[in-house]
Amino acid sequence: MALTRLGLNQSINLASNTTGTLGVANGGTGLASGTSGQLLKFTGSTTLASSAIATGKVLQVVSTSGANVTSTSSTSFSTNMTVSITPSAATSKVLVLHAPPSAVYLSNNSNYGHTAVFRETGGSDTNITTNGHNGTWGVYRLSTGTYMSGSAIEILDSPNTTASIDYKIRVKVDNASLTMTYGHDASQASMSSLTVMEIGA
Predict the structure, then answer these.
(1) CATH 2.60.120.760 region(s) of the chain?
(2) What is the pLDDT of residues 131-147, one digit of tens each?
(3) How large is the C-alpha radius of gyration of the chain?
(4) Rounded to two decimals, what is the model's pTM?
């Protein structure tokens, strides 16, 4: 619909005196109504359509940080830090990012310390560090009485659920004669963080 001037000092009330859909060529959208939560995109040189935002967008971010210290001599995993997220769609992926402490201490240089990421949901606890070394990401071995930095972790998970998920950083040693302190000690604790992002797919 094109607009026609009626005469000098006359006007058209667009709120009440128009009908139909104003085409793109005449400055309109070509749409009778919009769609909640969507945007407009060109589908041709003179046509627009309502469309959902493209996949791959970040839907939500949850993060925790602090001076988290875990000292262990156990060959079973102990939890260092946890963050919870509830995906909005079962098709979403979750990007897990762990910024480790700047200090990891081992009491001897004969054995190894390890870190891993676990996903806990619906009573099921799963080690998702499948691309690490034997189910662990950080593997630590150093001279007795010295310190080293932790290993940053990045894992893209496909949990396939809309239930609440706990993602956990866990640590262990491979021999009970070793004590590993992940995060130094309480008086000189180094900061670490755990961030999870839901990615639309």
Answers:
(1) 58-199
(2) 666 677 777 777 666 67
(3) 28
(4) 0.72
The pLDDT tens digits of the residues spanning 18-70 come to 666 766 666 566 666 666 656 666 666 556 565 665 566 899 999 999 988 99
| Separation CA 74–CA 121 (nearest Å) | 24
Give the CATH number of domain 58-199. Answer: 2.60.120.760
Q: Provide the sign of the torsion angle of the four alpha carbons 78, 193, 158, 166, taken in this order.
A: positive
Neighbours of 59 (CB within 10 A): 15
User: Who's near 182: CB < 8 A, 6+ residues apart?
Assistant: 68, 69, 70, 71, 72, 80, 101, 104, 113, 115, 150, 171
> Residue type for 164, please?
S
